[in-house]
Amino acid sequence: MGIGAAVVTVVVWTAFIVIARASAGRSLTPFDITFARILGAGVVLLPWGAWLVAQARRGGEHAAGSLFGLSPLPLRITAVIGALAGVGYAMLAYAGFFFAPAAHASVLMPGSLPLWTALLAAWVLRDRITPLRAVGLALIVAGDLLVGGRSLLHAFDEGSEMWKGDLLFMSAAFSWACYSVLARKHRLDAVRATIALTVFAVMTYVPVYALLALAGWVRSNIGTAPWGEFAFQMLFQGVGSVVVSGIAFTRMIQYFGPVRSTMITALVPGLSALGAVVFLGEPLYWNLMAGLLLVTAGILFGVQRAPAATSPPLAATRGGASGA
Description:
This protein is mainly alpha-helical. It has helices at residues 2-23, 30-58, 75-96, 102-124, 131-153, 162-185, 190-215, 227-256, 258-265, 267-280, 286-302, 307-317. Helix content is 77%, strand content 0%.
């Protein structure tokens, strides 16, 4: 079970990056994909949340749950993690794929997550950054700069828009890191946190975006895109990236422990970049390869002796991912 969960987690995280980039060249807009992701996850998680709340109330916890009995967490924490990980992360990540290639995302999102999480944990939770972890974070920063630095330097060149995607990927990782630190601070259960953030996203993003799209105030291709494409995004981005990878990662943590699990997920940057080369025909220049190697080394090096600072956030975050 543990080995199978590890394989599922790595495959889904890798496929998330490759498929999201491939989707950028098709019919749906980034906000359409976010809409499909939230709907797909909601179909599975809203009934699950209602069941958990009902069970708690039957057990005597009459004040359990929020948002009409669908979220198993209190309203305040539901709203905060929902805004960060349910809506914000998805919108930022999917928008980034429309400007930058998957090779950039494969480094900047999973590579930046430990960096942002460590810095936020040091500030909010007063976690100490050990020398070993500092070396790992330095390697991650160097890898990120190798990948995104060139496009950022050419930010004002005519026709260049990769820098926008790089910044969006970094912002998505920062949004997820904020959620990670909050999940650790409040000791949130991975499954309940995933359900709560999905319930918030369904009740806020879905109706607002639907009204804006119907009124013509935002561009949406849901009405003209093939229904098969939309259904696929609901299935993979919602059920796969949010539900399946969340459960699989939680099971992997139980089997391998946080340190070994984090080392296993360090495979994602390299595999997703190679997947983009194989399946999308994207070039893999020397700076991208060097960036992948530095980020992967930084992740592995940074978790060697201080798992407490990064492992619990990762366990909690991918309870909601992912992103995936």
